[in-house]
Fold:
Amino acid sequence: MTEQIKQALEKAVVEDTGKKKDYPISTQDACMHGALIFLSLLWNPASKKPDPGRELIILSSKGIKVYPNPVNTKMAWEFFVRISRVEKWAYSEDILPIQEKAEKE
Structure:
């Protein structure tokens, strides 16, 4: 989980509960509620432009694809959304598990 998602999730929890700790519901309900909040924060609408240089997972009418989203691209985001039929997108690092780099011996 990236720091950006973690901060957004913490902010949503405080807004939702009005408290910073001790949510007064069962553990199972709290877990399910937190997961739903996380999923709602994970996917971004096509109207929100992503940070360049961060790999994207795109949900479109054509299916799901991964795009590298290079820093030096000359294609405008609005044009990309239109030709790719982007409905939602997420940063791949927020969805895919963290891979530990192999230690060199």
The beta strands are 44-45, 56-60, 63-67, 86-91. Helices lie at 3-17, 27-42, 77-84, 92-95.
